[in-house]
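Page 47, continued from p. 46.
Same chain as before, 170 aa.
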Amino acid sequence: MAETASARSHAGGRNRRPSDDAKRVPQHNESADLHAPLSRLAMFAHRRGVSVTAVGIALGLGIFLMLTLAVPARTYLAQRNEFNDLRASNAQLERETAEYEAKLAQQNDPAYIEAQARERLQMVPKGEKPIVIIDPSRKQQEAQQAAERERAATPWYQNLMDAVATPPKG
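Result:
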């Protein structure tokens, strides 16, 4: 009377718990004196009806494929990140190129050249009279007024000696 656990449960026999199946040794090993507990892999293989060697080979092949594909996947992700960085850098360079082209077009404009010559070099075209207005800043005006007050407060002979002793400003 060698019924399996599944046959008993379907034929109305005693229902077994999964832990009972783990402790049970397969039928072909009933003559052994000592029963060794089954490993998880062996229990999985026994329940599914697959040999332990086939499950081990499948697991080994799966691990091998994961390790084999890990490096190319990492390389792909690194290259994709580098590509995105280069794309952003390229967009920045295109904006700078557009700015420089606009500056170049501006500097080729005769009106801009004339305005820069007037402003930076104080150049005037023939026929115009240049007028330069010197407008001292507020600090310069206050310093000049303070020097005049100091000069007015000193006696005339001291001013004469200061004028002879110091060389003229050139």
